[in-house]
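Input record (Table S2, row 256):
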Amino acid sequence: MAGRFDGKVAIVTGGGSGIGAATARRLVSEGAQVMAADINAPKEQPPEGVMVHRCDVASSAETTAMVEAAVARFGRLDILVNNAGVGIMAETPDVTDEQWRKVFAVNIDAAFYACRAAIPHLRKQGGAIVNVASISGLFGDYGMTAYNASKGAITNYTRALAMDHARDGIRVNAICPGLIIGTGLTDGIKDVAGWLSIIPMGRSGTPDEMAKVIAFLASDDASFMTGSIVVADGGATAHTGQPNFPAQRRAAMGKA
Ligand code: NAI
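Output record (NAI complex):
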């Protein structure tokens, strides 16, 4: 069966682990050739069709060179997934200049460097950019100011890019994942039950579930979507934050 990405070339930043690695696997499984660009070595051996490229996406020069290396290797570029991301847990008085700069450098500056280098190539035949933002770019969290601010930036950058390049045949969309356990970013979470309690579906998402949404946005199945901010969070942000009265009533009556 023909794959949705047969003949297409994709770059996935932060492709060495978590959501990025799952996305690289997914795109390859549907026919793409993929460059997985990451500052760290892959956590698992990537499948055939994934070219690993070491790159610090916080560096303008390295990111520009990474895009050119993908085009030199594969001859074209169709899809860019800006996925690399880092976070810190700290309230503003405790955030150092270096921590703030690092979060912004990886979570938003890097997407700008990659898009600036990629758009001239994507324009040649049209293409798709998918930015991995977060529900933390839509609303606030306790103790995550730098992360919230940087993810808000990439969310609105997505809309502006989409407008500027719609007539170049380049679609630009963002995914806002909710809690995805089992990635580098969430490895350190100890109180998993506390995090799950606010998710209506009662579970975290998986990297593969995010990869499916990213692949959809990158594919022609999303041909009339650009500037969309797609939430995939098990219902977490459907919630106003009010208590769960029916559950409280059931508990009071001794029902599950
Ligand atoms: P992860 O830590 O497994 O993946 C992030 C990847 O980015 C890693 O492979 C890391 O080596 C790479 N990276 C970090 N700094 C880099 C740099 N300077 N240059 C190149 N690569 C760099 O974590 P995860 O969860 O897969 O994160 C992927 C994206 O998903 C991030 O943008 C994150 O903010 C976002 N996200 C994750 C959520 C979660 O609950 N896991 C929720 C919402 C968004």
